[in-house]
Specification:
Oligomer: homodimer
Largest sheet of chain A: 5 strands, parallel
Strand order of the largest sheet of chain A: 4-5-3-6-7
CATH class of the largest domain in chain A: Alpha Beta
Helix content of chain A: 40-55%
Shape of chain A: globular
Number of domains of chain A: 2
Number of strands of chain A: 7
CATH superfamily of the largest domain in chain A: P-loop containing nucleotide triphosphate hydrolases
CATH architecture of the largest domain in chain A: 3-Layer(aba) Sandwich
Distance between the termini of chain A: 12 Å
Largest interface: A-B, 55 and 55 residues
Chain lengths: 220, 220
């Protein structure tokens, strides 16, 4: 956790500024409130917990558990869920490779807005491609934490909570990650959780401990 | 403000549910946390303050002032700024009529996500078309508050903080709202502020008073 005396070294407010952006008619408006002031007011920093794992690995379950535990500690937290976002913001997108990338791009940008607002946002998307996750990391910056739900495809297929593997095996779903489309596992995620072998409480506790270690939230 | 005893009538948590959505392979995951529980934890509700007005009417200035005042009262607040969002999430969009609508559609969806998370989000977009604002209102629901910055085009043109009216008059910018493209003023906004005639502090105070009246935030 960053000490308050450390925060005092930063100015509480930056002046509103209005700089034209070269070659455009757009202007960048800076906030009247610095990130440090937000942290002081909220008592925690902003962050993106980027969950990645196969269908059925437990992303949504873990995401919503972490959200609840954070909220109960007074942390402003919110889940961006693959399925939910696709019904609204990204309802114009298909599951083609191009649209999958656009899906992740938009989610990264929204996650960045939440992180910038001072929230801890938890994204729950398969996000099978390393390149897309690298792009998300670049968009968000330092406050990006990749959380790999390391559950093998056999375990996920046995679980099959939504019956999707069965449909994929029957050829009813094309380009299904782990069956007919690749999943590129993270090489160096900030944290790996084995949601196939431990209860969600255990995985959630590890994620919160990491946020404490990284100084995003205060020790519980 | 909703009383705590009122909130107690609601269940604190809803069970995680996982219902398939008809005709799709998507599933809707409900939060483990109810809106009422979020309100208890944060001490305020979520809302969208949808600012609308001509270029130069003072939307960004008012938005950032309201954001700061809310934060200083411990309210989780964030500005979605037209210019800023266009540089990131919506950087693929042009200023054609179709893309302007898509711009507003995406912003509405993001604003809804912030409102759902329990934040007070302030959007600062010209948003000249009634139909687009009506769509945004429908997307957000009850917690949508339209804030009309009622400043006439002559005043905005004299101010011309970014030199855009000058360019528009010279024909260097096409489809410029108020000059060569229409601005459809709101017929029944939740609040109207005359940022051309009063200091930003006065307008901001009115917006905060409305949020108090509507029970979004506690009386200051």
């Amino acid at each position: 956790m960053v000490e308050t005396r450390e925060l005092r070294r930063f100015p509480c407010y930056v002046s509103p500024m209005s700089d034209s952006i070269k070659g455009t008619n757009l202007t960048w408006h800076a906030s009247e409130v610095s990130a440090e002031r937000r942290r002081e007011v909220h008592g925690h920093g902003g962050a993106v917990l980027w969950l990645t794992g196969l269908s059925g690995s437990g992303k949504s379950t873990l995401a919503h558990r972490v959200e609840r535990l954070l909220l109960e500690r007074g942390v402003f937290a919110y889940v961006l869920d693959g399925d939910n976002v696709r019904h609204r913001l990204n309802r114009d997108l298909t599951f083609s490779a191009e649209d999958r990338s656009e899906n992740i791009r938009r989610v990264s940008e929204v996650a960045k807005l939440f992180q910038d607002s001072g929230a801890v946002v938890i994204t729950a998307f398969i996000s099978p491609y390393r390149a897309d996750r690298a792009q998300a990391r670049e968009t968000v910056g330092d406050a990006f934490f990749e959380v790999h739900l390391d559950v093998d495809v056999d375990t996920c297929e046995v679980r099959d909570p939504k019956g999707l593997y069965k449909k994929a095996r029957a050829g009813e779903i094309k380009n299904f990650t782990g069956i007919s489309a690749p999943y590129e596992a993270p090489e160096s995620p900030e944290i790996k959780v084995r949601t196939g072998e431990e209860p969600v409480e255990a995985s959630a506790a590890k994620v919160l401990a990491m946020l404490e270690d990284r100084g995003v939230i205060a020790a519980g």
